[in-house]
Amino acid sequence: MSYRILFTATAKEDLRDIAFHIADISKDKNLALKFVNEMQTKCRQLHDFPESGALPNDRVLRSLGYRFLVHKDYLMFYTVDHETKTVFIQAAFNAKRDYTRVLRKML
Question: What's the whole-model pTM score?
Answer without folding.
Answer: 0.90
